[in-house]
Design goal:
The protein is of the alpha/beta class and about 240 residues long. It has a single domain, classed as Rossmann fold (3-Layer(aba) Sandwich), CATH 3.40.50.720. It is built from seven helices and nine strands. The structure holds nicotinamide-adenine-dinucleotide.
């Protein structure tokens, strides 16, 4: 098992890539700390993950709320002793609007969750990692942060920030045993049943289909495991060879 005795905190774990990552990590023996604003769905994920690992803590937590984040991280560290892996996955992305039609309130909301959420989580978890000289931080960004998606200027800007934050922080903590990487999904088709190889055709990739939550979880697992011991400061695109449109 690739994550035996490791404890991993995943944000936005109720659905999609976050849920798939939680289940994948559970199967690899990790102890889980799962956060989301949607607590009802988190309970379901706890039940699913509980089939593979006995330690699953769930917390209703808004990552854009600094106090909530600090409280939850303290509690979780108290309960499990430490956090080895942090997956900053929670984000807002739905809602396409032209730049001129995007109110400042929407910009602030996206910046609050997608950028400051990553900042608050990282600031709360990193000291313990540095102290123990071991940590893995995986930020879920997006191809939007690399190429820029039209009618998603605010979203694209936040994901670009996550990618550059990843690269900068990696340099600060590389000699402290902490590896920091980003993954940038392209188009993803959510599949409730992660064992099904979901194959939705897509013009956005040269491979000709969307990716799946499970495929993204596989990459995140690799970066969270000791198999990625010489990789840091990278943004790895998982986009089926993206057509840049
Ligand atoms: N799905 C895609 O096509 C796609 C493509 C590129 C990048 N991504 C990125 O992948 C990540 C996951 O996306 P997804 O589509 O799998 O999930 P999603 O957008 O369907 O769900 C995200 C989860 O985050 C939670 N969440 C939202 N705001 C939160 C907050 N303030 N605090 C805590 N939790 C919060 C939601 O309740 C939800 O459970 C995101 O970072 C997204 O930007 C997704």
């Amino acid at each position: 098992m690739k994550l035996k005795d490791k404890s991993a905190l995943i944000t936005g774990a109720s659905v999609g890539i976050g849920r798939a990552t939680a289940l994948r990590f559970a199967k690899e023996g990790a102890k889980l700390i799962l956060l989301d604003i949607d607590y009802e769905k988190l309970i379901k994920v706890k039940d699913e993950a509980g089939k593979y690992t006995k330690d699953v803590l769930i917390y209703k937590c808004d990552v854009s709320n600094e106090e909530e984040v600090e409280k939850v991280v303290k509690e979780a560290e108290g309960a499990l002793g430490r956090i080895d892996i942090l997956v900053n996955n929670a984000a807002l992305w739905r809602g396409w609007r032209s730049f001129l039609d995007t109110p400042f309130s929407e910009w602030r909301k996206f910046i609050g969750v997608n950028i400051m959420g990553v900042v608050y989580m990282t600031k709360a978890v990193l000291p313990g990692m540095v102290e123990r000289n071991y940590g893995r931080i995986i930020n879920v960004a997006s191809v939007a942060g690399v190429y820029g998606n039209g009618n998603m200027t605010h979203y694209s800007a936040t994901k670009g920030a996550v990618i550059s934050m990843t690269k900068a922080l990696a340099k600060e903590v590389a000699d402290k045993g902490v590896l920091v990487n980003a993954v940038s999904p392209g188009t993803v088709s959510p599949s409730e049943n992660l064992d099904v190889n979901f194959n939705e055709p897509s013009d956005f990739s040269y491979i000709g289909r969307s990716g799946t939550d499970a495929e993204n979880a596989n990459l995140i697992l690799f970066l969270a495991s000791d198999e990625s011991s010489y990789i840091s400061g990278q943004n790895i695109q998982i986009d089926g060879c993206r057509r840049k449109m």
